Amino acid sequence: MAGIVLSDRQRLDWLRLIRSESIGPRSFRSLMNRFGGAAAALDALPDLARQAGRDIRICSPGEAERELDGLSRLGGRFIALGEAEYPVPLQAIDSAPPLLAVLGHAEVLQRPGVALVGSRNASAAGMKFTARLARELGEADFTVVSGLARGIDTAAHEASLETGTVAVLAGGLDEIYPPQNIPLARRITERGAIVSEMPLGWVARARDFPRRNRLVSGLSLGTVVVEAARRSGSLITARFANEQGRLVFAVPGSPLDPRAEGGNHLIREGATLCAEAAHVIEALQPLRQRELDLSLPPRLIREGAGEPPAEAMWDELDLPEIEPAPGYARHEGGFALEPPSSLPTTAAADPGRRVLDLLGLTPIALDDLVRASGLAAGEVGHVLVELELTGAIRRHPGGTLSRATP
Predict the structure, then answer these.
(1) Is-cis flag, bond preceding 178, omega within 30?
(2) Alpha helices in 75-226 (DSSP H)
(3) What percent of the chain has pLDDT over 70?
(4) Rounded Cα gap, residues 219 and 32, in angstroms
(5) Could you tell me which of 112, 142, 213, 251 has the fewest CB atoms within 10 Å of its CB?
(6) Residues ≥6 apart with Cβ < 8 Å to 25
(7) Alpha helix (H) residue ranges in 257-358
């Protein structure tokens, strides 16, 4: 697909503009449309800010050059909105990042993508099913897209390393989160890609994860929610997918398992039930056979299927031409997103809690449980004896195990 080609000077000006204070994707677009280019917009920005009663910091040429150099030393580069390599599905969303930093193989972004998202505190059964979905989607020539978080995201990336996967970061490309997935991130770049819209050195904050989630869904023709609590970042991703006119799929689960509550809710609201990869492949096949329409399609599930917007994701300069930025839900007690700290969780430090968290109401084989836990087989066996004595787990015919019915 033909597109624009930025000169080095234009790319520097684009980076300066998007890195300036109170400039987000929408204000960037508005300024570009008004002034015809980033250089002219940068010249006009101080007066516009004063007219809006603001005093904003404009990114200097030196700062932008350092970021360009740093990204190049890392092995990455920026792809600009409208350039031939910019992903067409992402270009179609109304808050597409003007510059997308890419590390790895950018060509994987040209293949049709499917987002696999779900709980960080995933069950072993959920991660096994996610891995099967990811492998079969990859074999069908789909790129698997996710957010590099623990749990479902990790299972999706690991199972699609050979066929191509894209990890979307909430922070800079040099700030991998969580830290335990740094080795996985390196492996992803061997055949896939890691992308971010955030500056190098940026450590993700709570509000950055919804920004990332809109890119996960925006890069994909469809989003599959495997396991998710009713208030979770995965449902925010599903809401963005719905608003972007993309297909939303959900894997059903036991109504007794809190990790299935979000997916079951999505199905009730109109999402497509996903019990195998064929359900996704068949639904998306017509879309991959034609170039994505850049107009916004109608919503495919009901308005209430995701949490309503509550807070803007950018503090953008108040210009009359700028529409309100997409928002995300703030819940009581904080954000229903990845924790800001990389400290180990209680579950990670306590083998008994780790094993119990991995067990759901769906029976799982002992070998799969051991692999998902990362613990030694003997340690898992010891933990299972203790859990069985307390009545916390059940054994089933064939040696499978599950959490006891609450």
Answers:
(1) yes
(2) 88-91, 124-139, 152-159, 182-191, 208-218
(3) 83
(4) 23
(5) 112
(6) 18, 95, 96, 97, 98, 314, 325
(7) 261-268, 277-288, 346-349, 351-358
The CA distances from residue 223 to 112, 235, 266, 294, in Å, are 12, 10, 12, 18
Residue 350: pLDDT band with limits 50, 70, 90: confident
Alpha-carbon distance 351 to 272, whole Å? 36
- Position 353 scores a pLDDT of 80
Residue 99 CA to residue 86 CA, distance in Å, equals: 9
Give CA separation, 233 vs 66, 82, 214, 379, in Å: 33, 29, 11, 32
pLDDT for position 202? 96
First to last CA, the chain: 55
- pTM here? 0.80
348: helix, strand or coil: helix
Residue 256, classed as helix, strand or coil, is: coil
Among 46-50, 61-65, 181-185, name the one with the lowest average pLDDT: 46-50
Question: What letter does residue 227 receive in the DSSP assignment?
Answer: S
Name the DSSP class of 57: P
- What average pLDDT score do residues 367-383 get? 77
Mean pLDDT along residues 283-296: 66
